[in-house]
Write a structure and sequence with these properties.
Arc Repressor Mutant, subunit A, two-stranded antiparallel ribbon, mainly alpha, 215 residues, 5 strands, 7 helices, three-stranded antiparallel β-sheet
């Protein structure tokens, strides 16, 4: 090679030459390309990223939407959901007040309307409140004549609660009121957007349930 000239660079990656093991059979001549002096051409293995990101089917990292250094309530999903819920509750208290109910009172009445009589313990679990808070809520509803508690004849420790005819009449007005409140909060949404939002919230709820400690 003339002085000062760099060696030519090939467009093809170099091949690795591996000497094959073995020898010719005794008493015979080895065929060309076989035996101890045979050389096998092997193409180099493509490099793989250390983190496996380039490997087919490699799991994708879970994106982190919130970071401690830049966390704020303005774009917090939890804070926004709480604000929306506070608005719904305020409207429910205002509009249900015309029917003698509050937002906290219509839920147990609706539960009894849909599922029939139930125990106080079952109602507390459905409302996700403790037994004491549920008992005080039922005290107010029973004082209004909207429900009635009775002790189970088989087990006097168990108390069952059911709607009265007055309770049936009161809860009959609730679906129309709550539908109007929800539709007002969804003003400007398309049906596709509404269904997408339901789907996303259900996914988020499943994620939250997966984080709960087993009972």
């Amino acid at each position: 090679m003339p002085p000062g000239l760099a060696p030519a660079v090939s467009d093809h990656p170099p091949k690795t030459r591996i000497r094959a093991k073995g020898s010719a059979k005794a008493g015979g001549r080895a065929k060309p390309g076989t035996g101890a002096d045979a050389v096998v051409a092997v193409a180099p293995t493509p490099a793989v990223a250390a983190n496996g990101a380039d490997a087919p089917g490699a799991p994708q990292a879970q994106p982190r939407f919130y970071r401690p250094a830049a966390y704020g309530v303005e774009d917090s999903v939890g804070f926004l959901m709480k604000k929306v819920m506070m608005s719904i509750v305020a409207q429910a208290d205002k509009r249900l007040g015309e029917h003698g109910l509050t937002n906290s009172q219509w839920s147990p009445l609706m539960r009894m309307r849909l599922s029939g009589a139930c125990t106080v313990a079952e109602l507390a679990r459905w409302l996700q409140t403790d037994a004491g808070a549920t008992t005080r809520l039922l005290d107010r509803l029973e004082k209004k004549g909207l429900c009635q508690r009775t002790r189970c004849t088989e087990d006097r420790r168990v108390v069952r609660v059911a709607l009265t005819p007055e309770g049936e009449a009161a809860i009959a007005e609730v679906p129309a009121v709550m539908s109007a409140i929800m539709n007002d909060h969804l003003a400007g949404f398309s049906e596709a957007e509404w269904r997408l939002m339901l789907s996303l919230l259900q996914r988020m709820l499943r994620n939250g349930e997966a984080l709960r400690d087993p009972d």
